[in-house]
């Protein structure tokens, strides 16, 4: 049995010496409409503040049919890009009058579906999801129940609106710049092949090679997932088979770069001549070797996603797709 005391509005009314109805009207901001005296309001509010009482959002949601909460589903909160999206979205949602509730999917479709179900059970008014399931049908039912927007990733074939980074163009510029500096052998280590982010980043890599007249080797390209261990294993496999580092490595995500750096640190040697990655992190400025990166605009992704959800809540059709430009971070040591 819990030893915690759960205060109710009846307790606040009793402590303030007013009726339950009066306490409810004051705490829900409706005192003026019912001509409740200022003295009574101050007494109720003081008691509520003293006991850190907040009116039940569940009860309020039942009355208004709106919870003023939004749900965010991300694959991993330890992923800097996903954490940056959540951090940018939370104050924007609060400014719009909504509290953000965040769950992680672990890039597992089953866990993602369970997380969405939990958020819907808590009566969120809308959902922003970084999807991990490539099947449009997985989201069709939710999209009929409440406003749903994809952020950072899209699901080809799904009518759900999306707000994503123009990754192919950014990756093409990044890879093209190291080719211009002399790189002719560029290993690509990507995430899950079924994810739109992986497809877009790989498309940019291929386009840069094609523009330079470079045909990728049979073992240049690999895609598994965005785990650090996968980046480390992929580079280890290359070095084991070739007896040397590749001239350049382009990772499709910052966590994959972590794995590459972990292998270089453990294996020794100078490492690849060029290191490139999609996504950015302040720690890249502190490394002894220059890492060229693509920085996504987390604020723009968050603002665009929120705008789409709010438009649907207002009964307005949102833009079906929104592409956000990224920037290249060029470093020299």
UniProtKB/TrEMBL annotation:
Signal peptide positions on this chain: none
Domain HTH lacI-type: 7-64
InterPro entries registered for this protein in UniProt: HTH_LacI, Lambda_DNA-bd_dom_sf, Peripla_BP/Lac1_sug-bd_dom, Peripla_BP_I
DNA-binding in keyword set: yes
Pfam families in the record: LacI, Peripla_BP_1
Keyword Transcription regulation (UniProt): yes
PROSITE patterns reported for this sequence: HTH_LACI_1 (PS00356), HTH_LACI_2 (PS50932)
Keywords (A to Z) from UniProt: DNA-binding, Repressor, Transcription, Transcription regulation
PANTHER family: CATABOLITE REPRESSOR_ACTIVATOR, LACI-RELATED TRANSCRIPTIONAL REPRESSOR
Protein name, as recorded: Sucrose operon repressor
Gene: scrR
